[in-house]
Every structure is written in structure tokens, then in C-alpha cells.
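Quick entry, no commentary yet.
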Amino acid sequence: MTTRVDEFRDYRTKMNERIGEIEHLGIKRFFNLDTAAYRDQALDGKTKELLGLVASTVMRCNDCIDYHLDQCVSIGWSDEELYDALNVALVVGGSIVIPHLRHAVETIDLLRAEENAGE
């Protein structure tokens, strides 16, 4: 069964490959900057993914929420840790974040179901 997360991953991969074909220096630089921002430095990459999740939730970007949750789950953040981070996003962003909190919780459930199916 194909889930919303599977469709998101497929679309993101397809379109990132297409964007990679574009010979535009500014676009290439931005993608490189984004990649570099999540490398281990003063903060480790795992923490940065959690920060990305909070920022994405406050910015109300469901695609970004899905991306960062996919990363966060794959690198080992627990549900309790994710919920705590999402609480920070809710407090910072206010009630307008609630629909995106719903989306995030559904995504966590889908990712955990995927993990459990693979066991």
C-alpha cells in the first residue's frame, strides 16, 4: 500500500532530480547551502534535524515537516522527543500551527507503521 509519505518521497526525489538538471548557479548554491547547514558542526546533525522540524512547523510547511520527520525518525528521535519539539513549535507559533501539528502526528504514525512493517 502506498502512503502519503511514499508519495511525498517519490515526488521530492523526482523534482529534486529535475531541479538538479537546471543550470542555475543561485539554485545550485542554495541547495548546497541547505545540505551543508545540516552537517555536524557546533551542533550535531541529529539536533539540527530536530531544529528543522520545529522551524518547519512554525513556518507551517507540511512538505518540510514530512522531510524533517522522515529524517528525525530515521536517525533515532523517539516519539516523546518529537512531541516535545512539536510542543515548542506550538508554543512559538500559536494556535495557527495546530493543523500542522495534526499533520505531523499523522506523519509520525505513518513512519512508525512503516518501521513496524519492516520488522
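second:
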Amino acid sequence: MTSDDLKSLILLTFRDPERAARALCSLNLPMAVRWMALALIVSLSALLTWGASMLFPVEVETGMNSAVAQPLMIAGVQFAVLSVTALLMAVVGRSFGGTGDFPDALLLIIWIEFILLLVQCAQVVLMLLFPVIASLMWLVAAAIFVWLMVHFTKALHGFDSAAKVAFGIFATFLAAGMVMAVILSSLGLIPVPA
């Protein structure tokens, strides 16, 4: 894939995300390449997050600040979260009659993370020039994430309704969040209210 192909695919992602998803899946990349791409993208994202925290330190000390200071930990957590997200995208979609599989779901999640990495780069540049606008970029990133998740899931599984896919994604994330809260609280990693 040349740099022109990459630019075309980025533009296609915003113009017609479902066509972009089908184009990505048609690449038929080996599974090892997909895992390497995931490792690369989470490493770059973690390094960018760490670099941004060094450029723009936060005065108030929080748990997030100490986590950001450890890019390997951020990359590891992101790797696990994105892998589970791809697994849920494939398994839940198939349980509702979809036709997609885990390797393609993983590739689409990697691509979404790549697009979000570009948004993160733009945010760092904006922090230098227009800090107020940059602070609102998380809204743009969240909107892009939801929009691409819905359309990529729809394309992956051959679903007809974006609204039903959006509801399914929301319900899946809600259920996964509740399961994670139970697991983390049972391990003593998050406090349980008395």
C-alpha cells in the first residue's frame, strides 16, 4: 500500500465508511500482520499520549497522570481493550445473524484506532496553537469512534440498519462494563460501595 493509497483510504473512511471497511477486509492480510499492526498502533498511541503529557503537564496529581507516565502500561491496556472490542464486535454481531469474523473485526478496530491516532496528533498541534479548541477535540474523537464503530460493524456483518447496530453496540458496551465492574470489584481493584 502506497502513501497515496493510504490517503485515499483515509478519505474514503470519512466519505463512505462502509465501503472503506469492505476495502480493508478485502486486503486479506495474514493474522500475524494484523497483530503486529495492533501492537504498532497502540505503541504509537501510548507514546503520543506520554509525549503530550510531557509537553502539557497537568498541575493536579491524579491516578491518570501516573498511568500516562507509563507508556508500556498504557499500550498493554489498550492492546487488551482493543482485542476484546474486536472479539465482541465479531461474536455479538454473529449472534444476531451477522457474517463477519474476528480477523476482519480486529482489522477494522485497528483502522479506527489509526484514525483516532490522527485526531490525537491534530489535538497535540492544536494545543500549541489554540488550546481551547484542542480541549474540545475529545468530543470529535468520541463522535468519530461511535460513527465508525456503527458503520464498520454494519459493513462487517452485512446488517441493514445502522440504528439497530448502534443500539446493539450501546447494549454490548453497557453489559461489558457491568461485567468488568463485577470482575474488578471481586478482585478488589475497585471499591464496592457499602
